[in-house]
Design a protein that fits this description.
Length: 143
């Protein structure tokens, strides 16, 4: 069991954005955010920090040089979008499976990140959604 405490999730998201800005610049990617101010959330701050870290790391890792990555945090959802990326429908259906690695993927990793995100989101009764959009590929967590 983890302690469920109320904490400022807007502040946590801002902190995570700052920590990934340098990595984005070194990879020559644009990293922007739109975070609703003064949002609070009751939960385990450590697990939500891990969720954000995995999503932002994946977005930067799997987007090409020169791409843009956006994080949007609102009261009802958290969305990360990376431009220049699309995922075929068959692959989308497997992204949150443990140890899944898309065929031909040149990026290192264990294939556990999105399965961890799915587990954390499920703990809060949230849905994990993947979609190709006109802006790129999005990962959305919503109630």
């Amino acid at each position: 069991p983890v302690a469920m405490i109320e904490f400022p999730i807007s502040d946590l998201a801002e902190e995570m954005v700052r920590s990934f800005q340098t990595l984005a610049r070194t990879q020559e990617k644009t990293f922007t955010s739109r975070i609703e101010p003064m949002l609070s959330y009751k939960g385990d701050e450590k697990s939500l920090r891990q969720l954000l870290s995995i999503l932002l790391d994946n977005a930067l890792k799997y987007s090409p040089e020169g791409a843009s990555v956006k994080i949007l945090v609102a009261a009802d959802a958290l969305t990360v979008v990376n431009s220049g990326v699309s995922v075929d429908d068959e692959t989308i259906g497997h992204l949150s499976e443990r140890f899944f690695r898309p065929a031909g993927q040149k990026v290192s990793g264990s294939g556990l990140g999105l399965s961890i995100v799915k587990r954390i989101a499920g703990h809060y009764s949230c849905r994990l959604e993947f979609a190709n959009t006109p802006d790129g590929f999005s990962v959305r967590i919503a109630k």
